[in-house]
Queue: 3 jobs
Job 1
Amino acid sequence: MNLKAIGLSAVFALSAGAVSAAECIAPANPGGGWDFTCRQIGKILYDIGQVDSPVQVVNMAGAGGGLAFSHVVNERSDDPDLIVAASSATTTRLAQNAFGGMTADMVRFVGAIGADPGVIVVAADSEYQTLSDLLDAIAAAPGTLTFAGGSAAGGFDHLKPLMLTKAAGIDDVRAIKYIGVDGGADAITQTVGGFTQAMTGDMSEIVGFLKSGEVRALAVLTEERVPGFEDIPTAVEQGYDVVAVNWRGLYVPKNISDEQFQAWADKLAAVAASDDWKAAMEANGLAPFTKVGGDFQSWIDGVVAQTEELSREIGVIK
């Protein structure tokens, strides 16, 4: 469907029951993570009877999600039948003012129901056996250890070790060295080759390297250990209160009612509880991560504030 067709769908009121004509905007071309979110959640919403007709998916690529965000804010701000795919990249870009002055509070974040967990890994033969070993070494000589990650400087992979070093009491985040390369596999190659001391990325990026024995995971950045990877401890249980996951979820227009917002939260929770979604997560390397409604919005507010603070400290924003 092209962008001109977006406004042609009929608008129906969203009740606590079924939605008559739900639409999900994927702020990217087909095939990516946001497209997956819309198509999988949309399909399951219909299959489990949360909506009474198939969810219409509209791809609206542009400006790293900014085009879709602007469209929702300026043209669909009270549409109760609209959901939009989002992830950690959405809030990171909003926190760093990448959407031309638009802010996270111009929409409502309704929920996340899966995540690619953040991880910190070292080469299999690294001297650092635990997360504390690594962070203690950084504290002793902040400029001597380097992380590699698959995002540019200031991106989500860069922010993960900064959150950890902050939690470890290391305040000078500018002293934490980071090299951004082209994806997680390249970041692991840098670390395995000894060019960097650790890699910061997502679980989906390291699974093959874990199985081959090339790397050792020091921490997973989730609240609980990840099913299937129970031998990897969380940062939280090691004493560092950091949860950093590439969550998959949705936002909705700002000016829908509280009842309509809660109805979407309830529908998303029903998807999260379904066997269909559990199968989709397993097939796509996602871990359970369910936060919906007001709890999720509050969590997002905290994430955005933290991202803004860290981004200022490293000079990404002023």
Job 2
Amino acid sequence: MKTGIYPGCSLNGSARDYNESVFALAEAFGLELEQVSDWNCCGATAAHNLNKDLSLALPARILALAEKNGMDEIIVPCAACYNRLTLTQTELRKDPELRNHVSGIIEMDYKGTSGIINVIEWIDKYITPNLEGRIVIPYAHKVACYYGCLLVRPHKVLNYDRPEDPQSMDLVMSKIGAEPIYYPFKTECCGAGLSISRTDIVSKLSGKIIEDAESRGAEAIIVACPMCHSNLDMRRNDINKYWGKEFKIPVIFITQAIGHAIGLTDKKIGLKRHFVDVKIS
């Protein structure tokens, strides 16, 4: 099976650390990942609000390129990209006429044959079964696993984990030695794409997520979405100012937590790129 990876805009920019940790894990477990060539932006949170054809054409072109490169499945680490690609694939599968229309727009044949998996599904499928004997530094900390909005919703389309109380990330963290806490804010919104335009809303929403995690004794917030990480980590100064207190809890990608547990260096998994200092050991 040929596995591709669609990095999206974030993993090549603001979430470079996430990208580094994904490829570091792949290398450590002997997994070959091939980047989708000539990829484009998926449209993220903007395109579907502006133009229906554009919102379908952008993800469809990515998927068509994956098919052209013979990729049986593609891992999509960004939750927003994963959401847009999966929704587009589902919509075009249900409507052959619309699929032909979109194929005409992108000037490529699109069949919808490549599977789409998020980063936790990739971990569950290829890494978790091979963790035994690989843990050299157990991640012995209490953690709040934060899934965000887009990884589990809409449930009827994504059909991934439980929409209100997902457990997949918690289970992975348990396997590397962590103690996932009960955390009712697992799927609350962090402010998503309002990070630039309405930092006040992001500060309020992300602050609630952070405050609840700290109040329950969590020592880190674990994420699998670059947008969530950006809002909870990069916007920390704005959050602290809005709430009138200093939150020190770090925000760590699940791939970084696993990488550290199997002995990869902080540099290898990008832990030095965070705004909030990460002290694992």
Job 3
Amino acid sequence: MKAVNQITVTGMVLAAAPVGEYDRRIVILTKERGKISAFARGARKPNSALVGVTSPFSFGEFTVYEGRTSYTLMSASISNYFQELRLDVEGAYYGFYFMELAGYYAREANDETELLKLLYQTFRALVNPNIPNRLIRYIYELKAVTVNGEGPQVFECICCRGKASELMFSVKRGGLVCSRCMGRVSDTRTLNPSTLYTLQYIISSSVEKLYTFVVTEEVLEELETVVTDYLAEYVGKHFKSLDILKTIIL
């Protein structure tokens, strides 16, 4: 008979840390409960059934006991370990960064269905050799801030809501600025039409359709500048995993 406080959630392990001699504390991004922490008793014992299922990147169903102040992991059924990333140092650190960004935005008891879906589809893209990791990063970053309500306005002038043909991008204003409003904005930049279209596609498309295209090197470079500057302006967090990633890919 199922315990009253025992629930099953779908999610991905974002982080794991040792606790005591044999236990492990994990952070799971779940569809049903948002970001939760759970103690996995005996998960560091070699013969424990929880050894593999408490590793970062593990996606599946987790059965937890909900206590008054914390969760305890009882069992898990993992549908994807993303084992390819365990043999790919660069891909793995992209994954660590993506999880850290997701963990920054996610909240407990919040509906994080879209963020979890985005993270899962992004990991699927990471193990696809046909999509450059750099492009995956900028798509993920832009979509993550959009899912969390902080994405740029890329369909009309952010100042007057006009849709004039001559539109430039302003990081400080958070989106496009038309020629009539340009005089009031100090940091406008011209965008390649293909770059603007790419930004619009990422922001407006469903998660399932995100990783279905590639771009030219010119567009990729411009995408990097716009998205990196935008995150620097609006995401108030320094990510250690990104620092490590930069040392690997340079």
